[in-house]
Amino acid sequence: MDKSILKKAIIEKGIEKQASLIEDFRLRIEEMKSSEELLGETQFDAQQASFNEEINERADLLQGQLNFVEEEMNLLNRLNVDAPLHNSVHMGSVVVTDQRTFFVSVSLEEFEANGEKVFGISTKAPIYQNMVGKGIGDSFEFNGKPYKILDIY
Questions:
Q1: Which of 44, 78, 112 is the last residue of a domain?
Q2: What is the pTM of this model?
């Protein structure tokens, strides 16, 4: 398959996966807020106030996580699907190794694009630090496991 087409599919699936994660966070925050409102209408005691405070704290934590995944979505959206293919590992690279295929972008975990299993990693991930700047045929190690780069695009 044409590498440009596959890379475009990987970027699109990554964006789709991130959008799903964002929607999940938004739904969870909304559910928390609505449960607090419903309970607030029926009970007015110290225990309820404590419960409401706990829900607010959890919602704030989720909001922080939502902000983070939205920032990551902005990074994904800035990737140029029509950019020339890469010959060394950096942001936006698809890195095919003898162990697995990585998409250097944001932390997406594993997903599938055009039948290929791809693992999205951030440039802040320790494994990225071991592969950045390397080219086809180069090797690197992570957690004692050797990887050989077979292709980059």
A1: 78
A2: 0.79
The number of distinct structural domains making up the chain is: 2
Alpha carbons within 13 angstroms on the beta-carbon side of residue 58 total 15
C-alpha dihedral, 143 to 145 to 148 to 149, nearest 10°: -30
Which residues 6+ apart lie within 8 Å of 53 measured at CB?
Answer: none
Domain that holds residue 100: 94-152
For 12-62, give the DSSP string.
HHHHHHHHHHHHHHHHHHHHHHHHHHHHHHH--SHHHHHHHHHHHHHHHHH
Q: Under 8 Å CB-to-CB from 37, ≥6 apart: which residues?
A: none
* 88-141 confidence digits (pLDDT tens): 999 999 999 999 999 999 999 899 999 999 999 999 999 999 999 999 999 999
Say how many C-beta atoms besides its own lie within 10 A of residue 147's C-beta.
20
